[in-house]
Specification:
131 residues, alpha+beta, four-stranded mixed beta sheet, 4 helices, 6 strands
């Protein structure tokens, strides 16, 4: 993408690379401590963020680490929800095996020892666009 967007413009490429270096070198706040695991199947775990309300399970995509919803002190959707009458639970997929690079959510589900998921949990085809 960077090559495509900066093709033929060396100054723009230099500026983009300089911005990328600044982004990568930026100091980030330390992550909050991981919350307790209340269930585990294989590499996957459910983490409990507390709260007094009804439970709500959050499932980050397979390409994101679980802390995407719990970035830092004061920047955590899950910790905030726990103060708002919800009991957030986070599915932590765990560290994937090297062969898992091409797995889909369905593959992960099957490999967690659950067999084939019920129809309600299977991906549905995208609706066809209206014309």
């Amino acid at each position: 993408m960077l090559q495509h967007e900066t093709a033929g413009d060396p100054a723009r490429l230099r500026a983009a690379l300089a911005g990328l270096r600044r982004y990568q070198g930026h100091d980030r706040a330390p992550r909050p401590p991981e919350m307790p695991v209340i269930a585990r199947i294989g590499r996957a775990a459910i983490r409990d963020y507390g709260g007094d309300g009804p439970p709500a399970l959050f499932v980050p995509s397979l390409i994101n680490p679980p802390h995407v919803l719990d970035l830092a002190e004061g920047r955590s959707l899950l910790r905030w929800l726990a103060t708002q009458g919800v009991r957030p639970l986070l599915l932590d997929w765990g560290t994937p095996a090297p062969e898992a690079v091409s797995y889909t959510h369905l593959d992960v589900y099957k490999r967690q020892g659950q067999g084939t998921p019920p129809a309600s949990a299977r991906p549905r085809p995208s609706p066809k666009p209206r014309r």
